[in-house]
Amino acid sequence: MAVPSGGRALTAIGLAVLVAVAAGGTRGSDDRPPERRYDGPRALWHIPDGASLPASDPVRVEIPRLGVRASVMEVGKNPDGTVEVPPLRRAELVGWYRHGPAPGSRGSAVLLGHYDDLRGPAAFHRLGGVRRGDVVLVPRRDRTVARFRVDATERVRKTGFPARRVYGSVRYAGLRLVTCGGAYDRRERSYRDNLIVHAHLVGVSP
C-alpha cells in the first residue's frame, strides 16, 4: 500500500493500543502459569504450555520468509496511559513493551511497529503477508535467538482493540506483533485497524 500523500504525519499504531496494560504479565515472570482463557482466534485455544526462556531483552526481530529484519527499542506508556511506539523519525525500529515479558519468557511479549511513514515503508510494512506457520526469530541480549511459530493473525478495528488478548497473561511463551492496517482515515490521520500476529515459542535457534 502506498504512503498517503500530502505531507501528513502517519500514526501507524494509533490510540487503539491504549489498553489496560495492567492486564499484562510481569516482566520476566516465570511463576505458575494462570488458568487458560479461551478467547480470540480458534488457533490460540490449544497452544501447549511448552518451555520458556529466562528473561533477556530483545535486540532484533526477523521474519525470514518476508524479509523483515528490524532492530528493537524499549517502549513504555505515555502519560495518558497509551502504549508508546517508536517515534516516526525512527520508524525503522520496532518497540518492545518493556512492562510485559521479554520474548521467550512465559507470558505475552508485545512488539509494536509502524506500517509506514512519510518516507515510505516502515519496520512492519510487510507484516500483512505473514501466514500461519511462519517463523519469527528474536535475537536477544543474552545471545540466544528465540524461535517462534505464527499461530494466527487478526485485523481489528482500533475502537475494539482486544487488549486482554494481546497483553493478558497466558500459560505459554507468547509473542504478539502489532501494526496498523485497513483504510487510512484522513480526518484522524491514522489507519482504522490494527493487525495483530500471534505466535508462540518453539525453540532456540543456533
From TrEMBL:
Keywords: Hydrolase. The keyword Hydrolase applies. InterPro entries: Sortase (IPR005754), Sortase_dom-sf (IPR023365), Sortase_F (IPR042001). Pfam families: Sortase. SUPFAM superfamilies: Sortase. This is Sortase family protein. NCBIfam families: class_F_sortase. Transmembrane segments: none annotated. GO terms for molecular function: hydrolase activity.
